[in-house]
Design a protein that fits this description.
With about 650 residues, this protein is of the alpha+beta class. It is about 15% helix and about 35% strand. A hairpin with a 6-residue loop joins β26 and β27.
Length: about 650
């Protein structure tokens, strides 16, 4: 298919918001707008040069707690007058030459998201010509590329006609990129879903079906054809494409290939379906040293680890609310630091190991850092991360047994680069909670200016395709700091959940600190007030229907970011006469990780056996979370098994003895 030049270049292509090697416009050509002079119609305290600094900062952190990323985003003034404009001077290509512009890519800031936007170009900064068409941004749309036949230009102006939220007087842009292609090239952009996305019911395009249905959307610049997993997909006249796909498995990958003559570009997109997702929370204690120090200090006095006041409080939360908790441990505290205790984790006794083991179903111990230095793993090496975690893990095994190790961790200051995460994964970790910190000088998963940071400002979690780790966004820096800004925990959570929306408030990860220092003693976990604040928070999330979770299935030793159900069988072993006639009834009830019956499970369960047969079929859809079927014996004695399988179901096996 050969398009005419007017059609070939008259493209409006939505830009990718993808990590992990997917092609972007920037990888195909030089961004002419990078660090060029900028003029805006309404300056503000957020400098306009931020829109051309090469960093993406479309974050939407909680307004009452975390500051928005000013250093990488431009925000207009608040006059309420529209249109507002941002103009870039590209400079002269040569003395008598102008750039021939073909594409302008606009990234909004979703906290102050524009609605209708168009682009104009000029050779003299006075007479401007509109190019492309006006685009209306969808809520949280990551970006849009205005593509058009080549236009000579020195100046490019982005015009914003209105704000997405009509009550806002200000609009923001994260980044503007400008490209002038010297030759035709094949460019493939896949912009949704996100690579590694976990897709629950809030993403389902057809909620009345049993599976998750989502669109794969993108653009294929200059492509003659496109296919997804070998099936042709129609390209629209503006080179965009979309295909509705049904996710019938827990993990699915799609190979997307664009072709032009003998050339091709391909991307692999992996997503995880979570059709039975429900509201969950994970509670952990950071900077743990005080409560373990007291176990050391009182080893001859305590008969139980839960005589220590903070451990006793955590057990109270578990007994009363079902709370699951992970303690994040330092290996050394106070050596050369301004902390009240000089203490090594090696000094904690193993006297209470059996008690920790007996309570490991709700209380885990995990790695935090070697010491309390700021951002220890933002730039650390694999070797350093491996050594530090291995030290802590060795002491966890000694103090509490290997079954007490928490495989989803919170690192100190929440920053870890990919090599660090690989080291942790090699030692048995499977994920970590990451803070949305404004830290520039680090190569880590959620560094501001990366598209992973963008994605996590409006989502709960994703699976990093480079390391296989589950990355969870931290929803609260600490309970203590919320108290210090004068909010109750109920007020905080009500505002947080309302502002974040269902896609990024279904999974909550929050923490307290094991403080007993003068600065924060009044609200730390060690204080009466601190315990009240923590219980208030747990009480609120419980009342709103959030269920406790570790995000890891320790029984099956696998990540549990997707909700899966456990078949509870009437008998784990069945005996039946091998006469070819005898039958027995078999009943199965499904439950989730908290023991609740899975009344909403809608998929078929398959029963497979190497001997005997099932009366009425072996594929049955549960009713109200229950399945009943009849097994008929074979004619010859043997020992066989019945295997239960199904999507989003723990595989289970029943032994059958035909005598």
């Amino acid at each position: 298919m050969n398009r005419s030049p007017s059609v070939k270049y008259a493209l409006m292509c939505v830009f990718a918001i993808i990590i992990g090697g997917l092609t972007s416009f920037a990888s195909e050509a030089k961004n002419l707008a990078f660090k060029r002079p900028v003029l805006v119609s309404e300056p503000s305290e957020w400098p306009e040069n931020n829109a051309v600094d090469g960093k993406y900062a479309t974050g939407k952190p909680f307004k009452n707690f975390v500051q928005l990323p000013k250093q990488h985003s431009w925000l207009s003034g608040d006059s309420g007058v529209f249109p507002k404009t941002l103009q870039i001077d590209l400079g002269e290509k040569q003395k008598s030459d102008l750039h021939k512009i073909t594409r302008v890519v606009v990234y909004p800031n979703p906290e102050y998201q524009p609605d209708k936007v168009w682009v104009e170009v000029s050779t003299d900064s006075t007479n401007f010509k509109p190019v492309g068409s006006t685009h209306s941004f969808r809520r949280y749309e990551p970006g849009f590329a205005f593509c058009f036949p080549a236009e000579p230009a020195r100046y490019v102006r982005v015009c914003i006609a209105s704000c997405y939220d009509v009550t806002d007087k200000r609009v923001g842009l994260s980044e503007v990129e400008v490209y002038a292609d010297e030759k035709e090239s094949l460019i493939l952009d896949v912009f949704e879903p996100f690579n590694g996305a976990i897709l629950g019911p809030h993403y389902d395009e057809q909620p009345d079906t049993h599976d998750i249905d989502v669109y794969i959307r993108g653009s294929a610049y200059n492509a003659e054809s496109l296919e997804i997993n070998g099936e042709p997909v129609q390209l629209n006249s503006n080179a965009t494409f979309e295909k509705l796909v049904t996710l019938t498995k827990e993990k699915e990958s799609f190979e997307i290939i664009a072709r032009l003559d003998d050339h091709k570009k391909s991307e692999t997109l992996t997503v995880y379906a979570d059709p039975y997702s429900y509201k969950r929370y994970w509670f952990n204690i950071d900077d743990v040293f005080h409560m373990l120090y007291e176990l050391h200090k009182n080893v001859d006095i305590y008969k139980s680890a839960f005589e220590q006041p903070e451990l006793a409080f955590l057990k109270k939360l578990h007994d009363k609310y079902g709370t699951l908790c992970t303690l994040m441990l330092f290996w050394v505290v106070g050596h050369g630091e301004d902390l009240p205790i000089n203490f090594l984790l090696t000094e904690v006794p193993d006297k209470f190991r059996k008690e920790f083991e007996a309570n490991s179903h709700w209380l885990k111990l995990s790695f935090h850092a070697r010491d309390s230095g700021a951002y220890p793993y933002a730039n650390a090496s694999y070797q350093q991360a491996f050594q530090d975690m291995n030290q802590v893990l060795s002491d966890i095994n000694r103090i509490a047994g290997p079954e007490s190790f928490g495989k989803v961790l919170v690192t100190h200051y929440g920053a870890a680069n990919p090599e660090v995460v690989r080291a942790w994964m090699d030692l048995g970790a499977r994920g970590y909670v990451a803070g949305m910190w404004l830290l520039d000088k680090a190569d880590w998963h959620l560094q501001p200016g990366t598209k992973a940071f963008d994605y996590m400002t409006t989502h709960d979690s994703f699976v990093d395709q480079g390391t296989g780790a589950l990355i969870i966004q931290e929803d609260m820096e600490s309970i203590e700091k919320i108290a210090l800004i004068g909010m109750t925990m109920s007020q905080y959570w009500e505002e947080w959940v309302a502002e974040r929306g269902p896609r990024s408030s279904e999974v909550l990860a929050f923490l307290a600190h094991d403080y007993k220092t003068e600065q924060r003693q009044e609200v730390g976990l060690c204080s009466v007030r601190g315990k009240e604040l923590n219980e208030e928070s747990i009480r609120w999330v419980t009342a709103q229907g959030y269920q406790p979770s570790f995000f890891y299935n320790y029984e099956k030793d696998e990540l549990a970011f997707q909700v899966k159900f456990k078949p509870v069988i009437t008998a784990s072993k069945i005996k039946l006469p091998a006469d070819g006639k005898s039958t027995t009834n078999l009943s199965v009830e499904l439950s989730d990780e908290n023991g609740r019956r899975a009344t909403n499970y809608r998929h078929e369960i398959h029963f497979n056996t190497s001997a005997g047969s099932f009366v009425g079929g072996s594929a049955i859809r549960p009713v109200n979370g229950k399945v009943s079927l009849v097994l008929r014996a074979p004619e010859h004695p043997e020992t066989a098994s019945i295997k239960l399988t199904g999507p989003w179901l723990w595989d289970e096996t029943i032994e059958v003895v035909f005598e």
